[in-house]
Structure formats: C-alpha cells, structure tokens
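Dear support,

I submitted the protein below through the web form. The confirmation email said the job was done, but the results page showed an empty box. After a refresh the structure appeared. I'm attaching both so you can tell me whether what I see now is the final result or a partial one.
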Amino acid sequence: MGQKWGKLLHISKKSSTFAANFDIDPTDMEKVTLKLRTTKSAGTIRLRFRLKDGRKCDLTHPSDIVADLRDLAKLDSTGEPAKHVSKYDQELVADIREERRIISAAYAAMRADGAPMTGEALHTYIERIKHPNAQTGQPRTLLERFQKYIADSERDGVIGAARSRHYSVVARILRRFLVVYGCLDMTPEQVSGQTLMDLRNFVLNEYQYVADWPQLYADCKTIDIPTARRAENTAATKFKMLRTFFTALEDAGEIEKSPFRRLGGEHRRKVLREKYDAPIYLLADELQRVIAADIPAELEDTRKAFVVQCAFGCRLGDFARLSMDNISIDPTGFAYIHYLPEKTAGAAADYSEVETPIMRYALDIIKGCGFDFPVLRNCYGHCGYNAKIKDLLKACGIERKVTKYNVETGTNEYRPLYEFGSSKLARKTNVDIMHKVQLNEYAAGLHSESSDAVKHYTKLERADRFALMCIAFRQPAYKVDANLQLIEGAQ
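What the results page shows now:
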C-alpha cells in the first residue's frame, strides 16, 4: 500500500465543459494529478493535488479531502474505481472529481486574468470558486462556515484527525437538514433557538426522512444511513460540537450571540444533556472465563483480539494501528506498549505517548501473531469485529443480566451482557478492572479525596502500574530480553 500510493497518481484532465466556459482549446489543457506521498500502510491521509502545464506551471494544492487508504486502494490512478471493483466510496470519488474540476477552472481563470502562476494565487482562485459569496461581501452560508471551521481547527491542531471526522459527520447531517428544511443558504447569524430545536428533532428522527429523500443518501455508505431513532446521547454529542463552533464565531465577533444562548435554560439542558445507563463491563472473573473458555475455532481470532484489547484499554482505532514497533522494554524487564492516541493527539498539550504495561497472557498472544488480527480488517456490520465479540461472549456463557434504558417505553430492560459485546466493552472492562485494584489517594486517611497535596507529592511510575496490573488481571510478573524472550526464573 505504502509503495503504491507513495508515488504520484497521474490524472489527466480534459474537460470540454470547462474549456468552453473559459475559451480554452480542450486539446491544450493541463494535467491535474493526485500527489499522494505517504509511508503509512493504514489509516487516513489528506489528499493533495498537483497542477502541471508543461514547464510554465507546476503547482501543488492541499485539499480538505481526507481519505482512508483502504478506500484509495479500490481506485485506479485517475481516482476512479478500479476495474472489477463494484463497492467503493462513492462520496470520495465524487469529491475527487469535484476538486479536479475546481482546480482546472481556477487555472483557466488565472490564465485569462494573467495572474502569477503561484501556489498562493491558485489557492485564491480556488477559494473564489468555492465561496463566491465571500468575494462579493455576502455572508458565507452556515454549512460553508462550519466546513471551514472544521478544516481550520484540524490544520491549527485544535482537533485531531479522528475528531475532525466526527465533526464532518455532523456537517453531513447538517447539510441534509438544511436541504430538507429548504434553507441551504442560511447563514450563521440566521440560526435561532427554534432552528436548533428543529435540527435536534431531525438528528434524532432522521431515519424517517430516508424514504422520502433518497437522493440525499445515494452516496452514503450503508452503515451511515440511519435506520432507527438515534440515541439522545448521540444527539447531545453532536450538539456540543455545534455549540463549540458557534462559541468560536461569537468569540471572533462573526456573530453577535450564539444561538445556544438564545435557548431557554431547560431547552439548552435538554439539547446538551447526556444520560447514561449503569456502566456495563466484564468483571475480572468473567474476563478470565473468556480467556480460558472452550470456544468454536472460528471465534479464536476474535478472542485473541478482544482479550488483548481488554488488557490495553485503547480505543479501537488505536488498537488496530498497533504493531511490534509500538513495544518497548522497561529497564526493569517487562514489556509495554506506547502510542499517541489519535482522538486527542491534535489537542494534547504535548506529544507524550500513552504507555501501558503488557500483561503476560497478552504478551504470549502478541508474540504468536505479531498484532495481525484478521478480524480487525472488518470492524463493523453483521460479520464484523463488534458482532463477533457478541458471539464470543455468548459462547463463553457471559449471560449476567445488565440494565438498558428503552427510550420508546421509558423503562429499564434487563438483558444478557453478551448482547452488549463490542470494542467499547473492552475499554470499559480495562478501566473497571484497573480502578478496583488502586488504593484511592485518601485511603490512608492522611488527606482528603482528590487532594492536590497527594498529587503533588507522588505519581505512579510505569513499574508501579505493571505491579498493579498484574494483580488486577491475575497475571504473573515476568521479565523478557530484547527479543521478548522470557527470562526464566526472573520476577
């Protein structure tokens, strides 16, 4: 993957439409290429384009398009679906086509105006095409301003790539709302408290609009098309992102007052309030049952991935990117993983990595497979990792009843724990198991809970955490050499 996409992908641009618009001979048009240089073998990259016209023009344009390397692998060198590929990211292909058209149109206008052939000039002309209202003194639309806020926030390190993708999901929902309500030209200043309440209703019940507005979902992945009412916590999370956006506009003086401040207190609390069920996680005994249970062979890969993720407690995206390069040896002899969490990397105060000691059972699994868990290649859907975790827990007899609030009936339901199996359950299990073995800082009675003095005096070193984790996960302490080989008799 890295070698394939580390090279320039040439895309010829011969558009008779734009040639007609700008009076250019279609046989004498420039080439627009995707300029993708990466050593990554997985994850996402931001697409860059190269505009070349003989010797007189050779410019690079960084776009706002973020693409997954797995999706790019399905496209040929023109950005179109490769031969024999029937399932691909239609939205990505459409975005690439649109960006190429805009770059070509901008270049044609630059030539017509006699503009200097510089990257800055190309960017200016592209912005004129994308945001014509901004050039005439007219206010930018709400959707355009929100998209710019997302791009600027990621560029400036305010949010990371993972957070940016979550904001982009909100942007796509916002666009569909504006289309359905016939207000695509709405500006940020025009957003009222009632607009927010209408948007909230749309977010919660969007599934009801799919049948009547099929064109809005034609390019959506199946998993992104709502089929049921969204949870209120999901809606609240998305509205907190919107509140942050409007607060930024208010602070910058672009709007006089955030529409969230126009909402009455109760309405504002309802829009932003998150409610949670009683926490659901595996108890230490239940995790041991999963590790030791006799299960069908087809679930073995799922078990290995799941119990290792329980030991690490990292998010699924971070877990799927781990490799043997993320393992180091502590001076005292145990192995640990270290990585930058994608979700918070952009907003963190420094580049400190998360460091987690590796439990003995997890070390044995990793040494056997080298972080190659085939089940992680498909995490979602009916046959994905999350679905198979449910099958795994059911096969292990994890049937303890847990409570789940039913929004439709307004009552709690009592369902077997295996129904809630997911990668998030692994993270919650890790947090619970670790929390229950740590003595609170005030346990000795010398200081009050959350005492700043205690936090100032001491902290848990990596070796301390290893010792606690061995107790928590009921695993033996160990020492390894530089090749991760166990040193017999060493504890």
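Response: this is the final, complete result; the empty box was a page-load delay. Residues 1-28, 439-445 have pLDDT under 50 and may be disordered.
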